[in-house]
């Protein structure tokens, strides 16, 4: 089968994008602190639970993987759960709320990720990712507070804490978002923001937010953009922009870009 040649407008658009992306990197310089970060070993952890969202987990993992391989930054990576072993992305049958019918997710395609550590024996961490997913409601409704307890215990010694999607609910319940700006998945915005945490400045129109050393992203794919921004913050623009070119992803670099806030009727312009 013969491939059709690229049309001229497509070539021009691609060239303009590459030029603009390269120019944005050239306008930024790596700071002494970022150069120092490039020489240290970064210990990264990812919390998982039954019903984690695959993109919330695998998206950031792939960026970290590429940063450690092509970028040659030293990293260790731990997957942390209630027990060591495989953790499914499909939650078990459960009720979304009291009195609701039981939701059986047996028809859903499920992935597994191997938890290397438990909340009790996880290593010292510099960065902790907390993803979301369908299982967040189950963990919340079952009064299982292990994730929140782990966050409370580890947060004082973290360099960065980052939630993806509905993972913000665990940060809110842990109390670390009190008095801080945060955002979450706009499709489940009301559930996350109502009744979880105190005095949180929820941002309805944000791709991601940063308040001190806590980063929170909007839904699912927003985790890619937040992870890109975090890696750029830690290491500077040069290598992370090369990685984006290698994986052929054009990250949204404006944290206020959020058309999904309008789509889900969370925010109106």
TrEMBL record:
Keywords in alphabetical order, please.
Answer: Glutamine amidotransferase, Signal
A family per Pfam: DJ-1_PfpI
Q: Which residues form the signal peptide?
A: 1-24
Name the source's superkingdom. Eukaryota
Write the protein's name: Class I glutamine amidotransferase-like protein
Which InterPro entries does the record match to this protein? Class_I_gatase-like, DJ-1/PfpI, INH-QAR
Task: Show where the DJ-1/PfpI domain sits.
Answer: 113-232
């Amino acid at each position: 089968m013969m491939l059709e040649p690229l049309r001229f407008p497509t070539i021009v658009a691609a060239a303009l994008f590459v030029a603009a992306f390269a120019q944005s990197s050239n306008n930024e310089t790596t700071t002494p602190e970022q150069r120092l970060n490039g020489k240290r070993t970064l210990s990264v952890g990812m919390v998982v639970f039954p019903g984690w969202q695959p993109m919330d987990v695998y998206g950031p993992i792939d960026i970290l993987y590429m940063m450690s391989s092509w970028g040659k930054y030293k990293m260790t990576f731990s997957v942390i759960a209630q027990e060591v072993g495989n953790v499914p992305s499909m939650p078990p049958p459960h009720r979304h709320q009291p009195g609701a019918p039981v939701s059986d997710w047996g028809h859903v395609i499920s992935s597994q990720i191997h938890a290397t550590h438990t909340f009790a024996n996880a290593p010292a961490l510099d960065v902790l990712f907390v993803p979301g997913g369908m299982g967040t409601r189950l963990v919340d409704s079952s009064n299982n507070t292990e994730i929140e307890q782990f966050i409370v215990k580890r947060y004082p010694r973290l360099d960065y804490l980052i939630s993806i999607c509905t993972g913000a609910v665990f940060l809110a319940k842990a109390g670390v978002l009190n008095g801080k700006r945060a955002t979450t998945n706009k499709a489940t915005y009301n559930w996350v923001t109502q009744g979880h945490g105190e005095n949180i400045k929820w941002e309805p129109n944000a791709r991601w937010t940063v308040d001190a050393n806590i980063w929170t992203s909007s839904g699912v794919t927003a985790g890619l953009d937040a992870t890109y921004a975090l890696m750029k913050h830690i290491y500077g623009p040069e290598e992370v922009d090369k990685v984006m070119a290698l994986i052929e992803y054009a990250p949204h670099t404006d944290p206020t870009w959020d058309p999904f806030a309008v789509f889900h009727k969370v925010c109106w312009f």
